[in-house]
Amino acid sequence: MQDIDDITKLMIDEDLVHSRQLWNEYGNDAKRMSGLFDMLILRYKDMVDGIADGLDVISSFDTSEQKADVYKNNVHKLIIRLEAFKDCGYSNESLARHYVNEGVHGTVYDLSFNETRDIINKMEDISKEEKEEIIGKIDEIESITNSVNTKKNKWYALRPYLMWVSGKEVNIAMLVLPLIMKIN
Fold first, then answer.
1. Is 103 inside any structural domain?
2. Which of 52-66, 78-92, 119-133, 137-151 has the lowest mean pLDDT?
3. Would you say 75 and 36 are in contact if contact means Cβ atoms under 8 Å apart?
4. Residue 3: how many CB atoms within 10 A of its CB?
5. Are 123 and 133 in contact (CB under 8 A)?
6. Is residue 97 part of a domain?
7. For residue range 113-151, what is the model confidence (pLDDT) as tens digits?
8. What secondary structure letter does DSSP report for 108?
9. What is the rounded CA–CA span in Å between residue 83 and residue 81?
10. In a domain, 96, yes or no
11. Does the CA dihedral 114-116-117-122 come out positive or negative?
12. How far is CA 147 from CA 53, 58, 165, in A?
């Protein structure tokens, strides 16, 4: 990814102010949140790594209130991710490090499985073999959480991963533990 020019930085800053204002004033308006969501996704999906990962899905069977809630939550996630991108100097590489460092300091991000894999792959302080082991475990956790099974059965299947991650460094545990809690 190339460096972000000053005009693009200004556009991001203005979009953040505008988006936060709309979200605060019209967060329960499905039509406005839908328009804001579409604008943010179209404008930043190719600029900010992982900005669209792990967003909630709208169903045609959802009521207008449910759609408004989903759009409001998704727009909030996009705003937070865009703010983090700005705070990291408009750099995707710095953003990945930020997610890891903030996790160590106690902030838990709602990262998708793919975002977590990307962060693990970019970590320089762990060996290639450990990266492969961690990503393999993440694949297994994702398979269990997405399986067609009861929450109870998924929980029993995930318990060994809690033991496994407890033996890892805190920065790894802070990335993997939220994935275990994605039981649907």
1. no
2. 52-66
3. yes
4. 9
5. no
6. no
7. 888 898 888 887 889 999 999 999 999 999 999 999 999
8. P
9. 5
10. no
11. positive
12. 19, 20, 21
> DSSP string spanning 9-30?
HHHHHHHHHHHHHHHHHHTT-H
Residue type, 136: G
Residues across the chain? 184
Do 140 and 149 touch, CB atoms closer than 8 A? Answer: no
Q: How far is CA 107 from CA 23, 49, 118, 174, in A?
A: 22, 19, 18, 9
- Mention every residue, 6+ apart, whose C-beta is less than 8 A from residue 175: 99, 100, 103, 111, 116, 119, 120
* Domain range enclosing 85: 6-90
Last residue of one domain, picked from the residues 39, 55, 90: 90
Nearest residue to 76 (alpha-carbon basis) of 101, 98, 95, 51: 51
Token pair of 143 as six digits: 């398979």
Residue 165 included in any domain: yes
Whole-prediction pTM: 0.59
Q: Which two tokens stand for residue 95?
A: 């953003």
